[in-house]
Amino acid sequence: MLRLPSFTYLQPRTLKEALAMKADAGPDGMYVAGGTDLYPNMKRRHQEPRTVISLMGIPELAGCEMRDAGCVVGSCMTLTDLSASPPVRQSARVVGEAAGLVSTPLLRNMGTLGGNLCLDTRCNYYNQTYEWRKAIDFCMKKDGHICWVAPSSPRCWAVSSSDVAPVMVALGADYVLVGPSGDRAVPAGRFYQNDGINYLTKQPDEILAEVRLPAADGWDAVYHKLRRRGSFDFPVLGVAAWVKWEPGTRKRETGRVAEARIVLGGVAGWPQEVPEAGAALAGSDLSDEAIAAAAEAAYRPAKPMDNTDFDLSWRKQMTRVYVMRALGDLARRRSAAN
Question: What's this model's pTM, rounded to 2 decimal places?
């Protein structure tokens, strides 16, 4: 049985207290929210903090509210509450839908929005017990020097497996980080970087406090997820599709796309936006031809890695299929609305 190592557990009541506790703990301290990612990692000795600072008792990080026509969500809102939240459903339904696809009900009851957005990257060579990893002389991400996915590579190729992160990048959401030097807002697309180890631009002493969702202003979005089982599993491919329609469209018309974004999850160390796919949709009415062109544009740069479930070449083929499905959903919604 995997057991947690000994550690000190702290429960601050304010952000100020949490920041002070992290400053006292230094590099040996880590923040935790629901713990569905950190605690299993601690059991496998991936992460070994001596001090764990819980954020769940801080009222500032809980709940959500409408503000300036957009929705602001606290990072410690559980995924279950997020998926059922009326303000989220009203302003950005796709966020609640993506949250509802994460893992199982039990884990969604514990897991939080902030935890899923900051989810550790995953790899079949990394997400193993300490003894298993020791048998292969560890890997670059923890205790070793070689990335077993690409042994000649100077970087780690672990995969971003968050369900909600690709949606946030597609929506153009903003993350508010609180640290010793004050607050800063970071666009979701700049919060992530394509590196299996240094996958976040957030500093270790910063707290992801809230997420600002854009106002519902003529846009729609969907998220589709590929996994082996219909529940529990991490995505081996996620597709977030976002379109903004041109204003002033007459009711009888289906409308044209003013702007679009396609973001892929589970195929790289970060949520990978494919600008060429979005550009293929601009000015179109989401016709079959435009959808096929966007799917082909998304397929070309998608490079699934051989360190998660399913055959990588099949998963690459599924990129085209899932982009077409996601865009087809948006087209049907638009037609139904008219």
Answer: 0.96
